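Why this split exists: single-chain examples teach little about how molecules sit against one another. For that reason, every record in the complexes split bundles all components of an assembly together and asks for one structure covering all of them. Below is a record exactly as it appears in the raw files.
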Amino acid sequence: MGEWIEPVSFDVLEGEWFVIRTTPARSGTLLRLCCGLDEPAPPGTMEVLGETPGLLGRDAVFNFRRRLGVALQPDGLVSNLPLIRNLVVPLVYSGQRTPAEASARAEAVLEMLELTAWAQARPSELPPDLRQVAAIARALAPEPKALVLEDPLNAVRSRMAAGVLDRCKAAVPSAIITVFRRFEPLYDIADHLVLWDARGFVSAGEGVA
Amino acid sequence: MILDAIASTGHGARQVGASSALLTRFAGAIMRSTLTYPRTAFRLWWRSVANQVRFTAADAIPFVGTVAIAVGGIVIVEASAQAIKFGGLSDTLGKLLASVIVRELGPLFTSILVIGRSGTAIAAELAACRVYGEIDALEAMGVNPLHYFVLPRILGVAISVAALTLLFDAVTLTSGLLAARVIQKISLEEYVGSLQLAMRSWDVIEVTLKGAISGAGIAALCTFEGLRAGRAPTEIPQAVTRAVVDSLLFVVGLAGLFALLRYL
């Protein structure tokens, strides 16, 4: 991603929300590796949900990704689709649900995150804070085993963000999340909070600000 | 100076080689993706194909029709003038119409119009999707971009170019008839009789097939160039330019190949 990344080693336990405060470049590299969008440079390895995404074949890596709920930066909401279809399309085209099942699931997720009123709006019509919540909704729709979120909800007011994060954690107990600046709602909900900079990983107790 | 020219030629050849290898891999991936198409997506897929046909064919009818009227008028007036000069009108005019307009100009003009109108839109849309992270986001959610972005466009544009080619030929011949009657005073019977002598029913099949192959190729090349755009906004116009050049070379090459096969 255009920045040299120093070697790091870490484990995220099942049932834990692992929050990393870092730079956009480190975050982008790490999360793309998690999803199998990039491969680690040898001899580096990465194992996610028992798979090594960088080594999977083309079809296998798509099957692997269906177990993740992903929201990266930029959010990648498809600009010519209404919000509800942004949730339906990945469910249907990944082979997980029929269009009717996908619509029902999408409606349920939008309701859970209080976005029902915006279901027919295009992404460009959403205010920036709701657009971030919409990206989270799309990540939650497939009922993933783990969430992979990049600097989520940074434009959302703290109280609303805390509510969204609580609902996300209740739905998906495992997550790896990166954040680019101090963001209290995420710090509060994290099971494990670390700073990642040129020194490597620094735990919360050692001065993550 | 000479060394620079040799180095630049070598660099160009390497780039063409690399692009060809990528394109071959892309074609292979398209073939493979048809086998892994998710059953759950068939209904939405048909909707995408229908939207593509509406945009590429239905919305383009006034544009293609206008060009066809102009081409028909110009070519047939000129052709009939030459036919009268060089011999029997009934023989020469029909042969000229069948070979120049129906078999060659119709498919070629239609393909060029579709490249200009829809091919550019496809390449720009997909390049923008790449730049704004939409393709990465869908891939990260387990969606194969070939299933969602490429296959419906290939089928939709193939159907559209085949249909528009038939329309182009029909409008051209009709407008040519009017022009020939008004300017060259050729009778309807003479015109139709000349055409009947020169055309076979196979011509319609050939033209439809040519249009469908041309459309599929245009869509494949434009999606290829759109999807391989980088992440900077400046990549969007570059992707469009490459898509237009690739597609034009493809349709001209295809026309040449069909002509070669016909006369071999």
